[in-house]
Design goal:
The complex is a heterodimer of chains A (324) and B (121). By secondary structure, chain A is an all-alpha fold. Helix content of chain A is 87%, strand content 1%. Chain A is built from 6 helices and 1 strand; from the N terminus they run ααααααβ. Classes of the chains: A mainly alpha (324), B alpha/beta (121). Strand 1 of chain A pairs antiparallel with strand 5 of chain B, so a sheet runs across the interface.
Amino acid sequence: MVWFARSARAAHLEPESGIDGSKLRKSTQAISAFRDKLIKRVRRVNETTALEVTEAARYLNTVVEVARNYVQSSQKVLGRLHVQGEDNLAQLLMTQSKFLRRHAREMSERAALQDERARQAAAAAKSIADLAASIERLAGEARLLAVNARIESSRLGAQSAGFEVLASEMQRLSDEVATTNERVGELANRLGQDLPWIAQHARDFRKEMEGFSSTATMQLDDTERAVGELRAQLKAASSGNGMIMEDILRASAGALSHLQFQDVVAQELRQLDGAAREAQIEALSRLGADSEIVSEVPDAEYTTVGEAIDSQPPVADSGEVMLF
Amino acid sequence: MKKILVVDDSATVRQQVGMALQQAGYAVVEAGDGVEGLAALEKGGVSMVICDVNMPRMSGLDMLENLKRDARHANLPVVMLTTEGHPGLVERAKKAGAKGWIVKPFKAELMIAAVGKLVGA
């Protein structure tokens, strides 16, 4: 080991004269006592810093755990909202929206159909009135024929029985046609009065339905947009939470890395005793102490494998990871 | 869950390595030196060892050489975690079968990445 090599080199030096063994022994005992105090002090410092660093790390761990729990619970809520938004609320809104859109369109189509039928019915009523006027003319002609038949019958006398029957039938037919026509005319007139009202109301209803359909469509578009925004916000909040957790973990890992100063410092402090021991042996050797006195030097509290192997510069820096 | 054995005489380092590993989803067992480390391996279930070099009773390198001689643990990945960076030590560890060398103070994310590479998540 390094200190042995140094001691061996020192052993070749000429010892100083006038120093006896008992004085050397006392000196080495004094240095050993100093080393004992030093190492006790070092241990105390290491224990205290280790305790403090352990506590700090524990608090840090608590912060991470609290943050993790918070993020997990908010993720849960956001996830639930997101899922509910997807599966329930938004789905429900979308279903309702489709339903309303379909019904608004159907109602509008029906209103248009109703309007069209009302127009057709009004046109049919007018045609009936026109037909009634034609029938009226036919009835008039039938009456004229009946009068003519009756005149012809009276002119022919007893031989005109056939004309008389014909005249009577023509008169009866003419009267029935007139009566029926009168009724048809009344109905056509009534229809003619009512149907324009119905047609007007059908047109108004159609306009109302078209307005409703258009407003409902706009409102449904707004609802769908709002649902889309809600989804986006939930997604953003969810991913934001994940980023917060990553930041917390990164910061805690950084803080933990810095807390390792305690171990590094502790190792350096413990090596002080090794250095003191080397100095003690070197001093003894220079003073010409024999091997018996040197063998009484207490072992170092802490020796490192590194120093025992070589003193070449390190191949890796702090934090570096080498995989073989 | 993969179990990692952390061997270090410093309680703070064991705690810090343990926390980083646990946050990454690994289970952790601890030992204070090489002797305790070898005893912990006997209990089984360890997927990897992260081991300090300078420790009382048995150094990390001695522990590494011991466990590699045991057929049951010969294939166990071992990464040294130490303040040392001397080439002779690194070479000795490599020759003894160590899979990696991390110099303290370690960076948690690099250590976790190395662990992930050697044993998976």
